[in-house]
Amino acid sequence: MHTPLLARLRALLVPALALLGTIALVGCAAGPDSTGGPAGPAAAPKRVAIVLTNHGQLGDTGKPTGFYLSEASHPYEVFRKAGYQIDFVSPKGGEAPMDGVDRNDPINAAFLDDEALVARTKATTSIAKAMSAPYDAVFFSGGHGTMWDFPNDASVQEFIRTVYERGGVVAAVCHGPAALVNARLSSGMYLVAGKDVSAFTDEEEIAVELEKVVPFALESKLRARGARFVEAPNFEKKVAVSERLVTGQNPASATGVAEAVVGLLEQRGR
């Protein structure tokens, strides 16, 4: 007496079961990635620390100094376009005084007009706190202030060694290579020894009449550490890539150094 009811139920269930089977097949087809392997989470963006100086006094001149804006803003723009996560850090943390503020440079102007971005340079993370983060690269921006606080800061030296020996890229531009003069690997060797290195030259320092103000001659110090110093004519672009160390001579080189860092990181990621 229930035969008609069972027949109706069967008529409803058979198409439903067929639809479920189709959905399952589609789900299986969509699950693997394009290589045929199982789908996984998207890769995390590469992470870069831009290191700024905390030092704001130009020797005994009574004049202010700090990090040179274009040597932070231009690399920032390169890393931003590459989709990287960018952190601003400094030896002590807190404010990094800004120098070389030129609004005629459109990249500088865009940086300065971004209040949140400028605020980040006034509230940097100390290297000691940033040290544990898995940075793919560390970039030391220049500016004359770096000549006083980068060279002898133990956290700077440890940060360089940690990132480099973990397989990351270490980069610096203009006076930023002041961070490298006392940086040693675990072997005890200076990182720059036997590597091509560029930085603000002794001749350029004389040209800006600050050779008697800075605490040491950067080019000469790097040569003394065993670097193969490479240079272009005064104030022209020069970028040196040696293994995973990237350095640049002056402000004109800042973008090129950042682009070389991106090139190394993308090559490593393939």
CATH superfamily: Class I glutamine amidotransferase (GATase) domain
Order of SSEs: HEEHEEHHEHEHHEEHHEEEH
CATH topology-level name: Rossmann fold
Instruction: Give the fraction of residues assigned to helices.
Output: 25-40%
The strand line-up of the biggest sheet is 5-3-1-6-7-11-10
- Low-pLDDT segments, ≥5 res: 16-39
> What structural category arises from helix and sheet content?
alpha/beta
Portion in beta strands: 5-15%
List the helices and strands and how they pair.
Blueprint: H1 3-30, E1 47-51, E2 67-68, H2 70-81, E3 85-90, E4 98-99, H3 106-113, H4 115-121, E5 125-126, H5 127-130, E6 137-140, H6 146-149, H7 154-165, E7 169-173, E8 196-197, H8 202-207, H9 218-224, E9 228-229, E10 239-242, E11 245-248, H10 254-269
Parallel strand pairs: 1-3, 1-6, 2-4, 3-5, 6-7, 7-11, 8-9
Antiparallel strand pairs: 10-11
Helix pairs in contact: 2-10
